[in-house]
Amino acid sequence: MAPAVPLAVLALVALVAPGLGAAPGCDHPAHRWCSSPDVAAACQVQGRCPSLPSPAAAPVELSLYYESLCPACRQFLVLKLFPTWLLLPEEMLSITLVPYGDGPRSHGACLMNEAKNFRTYFPVIFCLESGTSVTKNLEACLQIYAPEVDSGRIAACVQGDTGVALMHHNAQVTQALDPPHQYVPWITVNGKHTDELQAQAEASLLGLVCHLYQGEKPEVCGSSTAPKFPAGCRR
Description:
By secondary structure, the protein is mainly alpha-helical. It has helices at about 5-15, 35-45, 70-85, 105-115, 120-130, 135-145, 150-160, 160-175, 195-210; strands at about 60-65, 95-100, 185, 185-190, 235. It has 9 helices and 5 strands. The chain has a 3-stranded mixed sheet with strand order 2-1-4. Helix 3 (about 70-85) packs parallel to helix 9 (about 195-210).
């Protein structure tokens, strides 16, 4: 790694020999070379700017393909996915939920469509999957976690063309999986599915995410183990 050079030295170099020490085409004065990661990259002096923050690490991307009220899906979502999401900072874990298959799955799709924001609809889905009936518990779960969301609009979506279109989209996304999904819950991590990743996610999702994340890790990322969940709802 190149030694850090004080800004004063960089400025002096620029005054004595303009253009020396920075990349051709760098149109920033020397005292601005270390002002931001973008400027440092444009002038190719990142190694001389020790005060620059490290680039943000990409979040671990997890997609869950599931059926509403499927016992194994509920176990994973309620006991693993939701608690892990609560424990970790938002920048560590990005979650995509794809409800499709048997059961009242269009309620979840319509809820996501109406609420828009993941932080709004995920607690509601957690509440619904924690209960025994999506249709009976929807109003109560909305009142607790997302009172600003109109249950009437969700009902209209479920019963109308919007719900059909949303489920058609989820069907296409699910059927495009490679390898094809064979059961639910079907979990992909950073766009990939393997038996090993599935088993690790079901056994200790927190540990898996902490292991895969390349950025600075919070204290909660210690040794975390949990019993492996039963196999998914195979067809």
